[in-house]
């Protein structure tokens, strides 16, 4: 395992390493003898100086990035205006070539060529600068997060080794305020998103400035792959994605609150939870969602997800409709027919008749579902969502959910008869610890429109296979919350519970091997220390070997467990039969046969235990392609069992016993 001091030195951007916390020196001073009150005060002064050094550099670099972004924002309109009168470009998007029209005046043609070449150089420089700034935003975010972790670790190590001089309590306000991250990166990310989007538009690529009717989210059919993202990698993921997709703003020109809240319903038997966990065909999920202000819920979206298995040739589908919150409690109790809301919308003339008919059908079905299954509020999820998508193209959509919080709702008794708890709100500090879970990671979703049959773009595949994310197929916020809050009721927990007990942090690759970089390396940066490169690659390979890779072969891993349990069940039957013969048979021959069956059962158990561990090891080594069938073992078991039974019958009737 790589020590944190070495990690801090090797993974921080090398040009900034002298501005990082001197972790190793502080650690050395903790272990120095003797350690008196004078040394304690000297250590505290040194720690304060190191913190001030890191914080000063962070603010300086952050302000520099702001000024560079402002300069690019001023340069883009003039460049776009200068490019308008030029002929159509024909070369690749990164270095466009322009044809100069040949007129009667050779001097004019030469001037046009010079002007086109000058604009081409400006555009190329702008491409490179936005890439460099984007990469430096990523590096600064990782720098600040890594140094903040260094402060926490050094305080913890100090208090552990110097119990007579505790220090962490004196830095409580510092730790809670996260000073290195006090300036949010969201503003930089939004501005970079607009710059990348304008650059794509200038190059003639798809952008948010293309005309579109908006994003139709009435009925959505998507294929989704989910990942966990460590908090230190959140900015890295955002910057990488916005190079290819803009941040999706549903209403431009207004404040877009990223908050998203959902109330999930189920009954006391957790029927919806168990149906989905068992992957039953037609299993459904019901939630009530609102966007933006967590305390303002004028309009609530009722969403029903229906799961279809692959063998049905149908895709899982999400259907939804809006309803005013003032009508929601009556709707859930069956006192408010959805036809009333449909009639209001029909009178306003804002929806198509087909959509209104679908809304009434879905509303009636959901209402009957709530009443018949006795559904009530069970779980609340609250988080901030950043979505990336081209408004005119919904084929690829990426969302990143941060600050995920899971809260117990547990029925109308806890909610005082309301459809959600009104005694709390984000960040739910007033709730007891057993009623709230602060999820440690962000959740990344890559969504593809399945009807197009389109594979994920290469940059998305690079992201999915990078050190920035941990794949968690079929992750569900609702299932995770239910399994944590209702341990006594659940029959089966989600498989990712096993992944919660291990770190998802992966070694960061060297610059030349990192596919997630958004800039172009300069030639002088290519002269790297080859020995350092080999050491970091060896460390990455060692970490990879120590990681249990159940992601790709998740279903096979648990199928292996179930197969072993079935063989174990058979062995128990054999043991029971053999013990019955040994203890109850009146003759020695039957006892000998019972002993033989007992030995056979032990051998069968040991054999299948070995097979189980061999298969599990193959899956850990990313070699889970099989084969998995046992061709001869079932035949051998059947022959031995039948032979034993036949011998027993023959001995009994032949007079031997």
UniProtKB/TrEMBL annotation:
* Record key words, sorted: Membrane, Transmembrane, Transmembrane helix, Vacuole
Domain of life (superkingdom): Eukaryota
Q: Which residues form the SPX domain?
A: 2-172
Q: What is its main location?
A: membrane
Give an example GO biological process: polyphosphate biosynthetic process
Annotated TM spans: 564-584, 596-614, 634-653
Q: Provide the membrane topology annotation.
A: Multi-pass membrane protein
* Annotated spans, Disordered: 87-118
Q: Localized where?
A: Vacuole membrane
Q: What CDD domains does the record point to?
A: PolyPPase_VTC4_like
Cellular component (GO) terms are: fungal-type vacuole membrane; vacuolar transporter chaperone complex
Name under which the protein is recorded:
SPX domain-containing protein
């Amino acid at each position: 395992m790589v020590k944190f001091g070495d990690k801090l030195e090797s993974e921080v951007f090398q040009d900034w390493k002298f501005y990082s916390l001197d972790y190793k020196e502080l650690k050395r001073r903790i272990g120095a003898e003797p350690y008196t009150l004078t040394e304690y005060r000297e250590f505290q002064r040194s720690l304060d100086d190191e913190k001030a050094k890191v914080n000063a550099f962070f603010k300086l670099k952050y302000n520099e990035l702001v000024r560079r972004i402002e300069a690019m924002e001023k340069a883009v309109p003039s460049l776009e205006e200068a490019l308008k009168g030029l002929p159509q470009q024909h070369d690749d998007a990164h270095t466009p070539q322009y044809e100069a029209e040949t007129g009667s005046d050779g001097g004019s043609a030469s001037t046009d060529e010079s002007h086109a070449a000058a604009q081409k150089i400006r555009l190329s420089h702008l491409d490179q600068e936005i890439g460099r700034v984007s990469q430096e935003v990523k590096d600064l975010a990782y720098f600040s997060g890594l140094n903040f972790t260094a402060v926490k670790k050094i305080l913890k190590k100090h208090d552990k080794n110097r119990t007579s001089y505790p220090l962490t309590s004196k830095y409580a306000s510092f730790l809670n305020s996260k000073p290195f991250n006090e300036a949010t990166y969201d503003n930089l990310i939004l501005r970079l998103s607009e710059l990348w989007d304008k650059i794509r538009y200038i190059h003639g690529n798809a952008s948010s400035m293309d005309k579109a009717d908006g994003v139709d989210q009435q009925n959505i059919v998507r294929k989704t792959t989910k990942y966990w993202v460590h908090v230190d990698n959140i900015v890295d993921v955002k910057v990488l994605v916005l190079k290819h997709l803009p941040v999706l703003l549903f209403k431009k020109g207004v404040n877009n609150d990223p908050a998203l809240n959902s109330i999930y319903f189920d009954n006391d038997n957790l029927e919806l939870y168990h149906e989905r966990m068992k992957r039953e065909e037609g299993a459904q999920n019901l939630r009530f969602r609102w966007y933006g202000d967590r305390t303002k819920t004028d309009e609530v979206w009722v969403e029903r997800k229906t799961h279809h298995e692959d063998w049905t040739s149908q895709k899982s589908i999400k259907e939804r409709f809006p309803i005013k919150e003032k009508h929601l409690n009556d709707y859930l109790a069956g006192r408010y027919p959805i036809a009333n809301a449909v009639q209001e919308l029909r009178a306003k003339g804002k929806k198509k008749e087909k959509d209104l008919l679908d809304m009434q059908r879905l509303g009636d079905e959901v209402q009957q579902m709530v009443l018949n299954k006795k559904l009530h509020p069970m779980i609340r999820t609250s988080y901030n969502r950043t979505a990336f998508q081209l408004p005119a193209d919904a084929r690829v959509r990426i969302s990143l959910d941060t600050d995920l919080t899971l809260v117990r709702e547990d029925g109308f008794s806890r909610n005082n008869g309301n459809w959600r708890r009104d005694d709390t709100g984000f960040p739910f500090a007033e709730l007891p610890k057993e009623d709230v879970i602060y999820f440690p990671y962000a959740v990344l979703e890559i969504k593809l429109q399945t009807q197009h049959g389109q594979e994920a773009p290469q940059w998305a595949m690079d992201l999915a296979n990078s050190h920035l994310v941990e794949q968690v197929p079929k992750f569900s916020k609702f299932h995770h919350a239910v399994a944590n809050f209702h341990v006594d009721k659940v029959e089966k927990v989600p498989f990712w519970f096993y992944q919660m007990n291990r770190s998802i942090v992966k070694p960061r690759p060297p610059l030349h091997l990192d596919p997630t970089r958004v800039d172009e390396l300069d030639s002088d940066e290519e002269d790297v220390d080859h020995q350092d490169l080999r050491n970091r690659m060896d460390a990455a390979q060692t970490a990879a070997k120590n990681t249990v890779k159940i992601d790709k072969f998740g279903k096979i891993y648990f199928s292996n467990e179930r197969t072993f349990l079935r063989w174990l069940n058979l062995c128990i039957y054999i043991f029971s039969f053999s013990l019955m013969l040994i203890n109850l048979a009146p003759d020695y021959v039957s006892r000998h046969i019972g002993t033989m069956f007992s030995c056979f059962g032990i051998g069968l158990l040991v054999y299948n235990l070995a097979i189980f561990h061999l298969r599990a090891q193959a899956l850990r080594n990313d070699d889970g392609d099989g084969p998995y069938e046992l061709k001869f073992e079932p035949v051998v078991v059947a022959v031995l069992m039948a032979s034993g039974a036949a011998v027993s019958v023959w001995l009994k009737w032949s007079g031997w016993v």
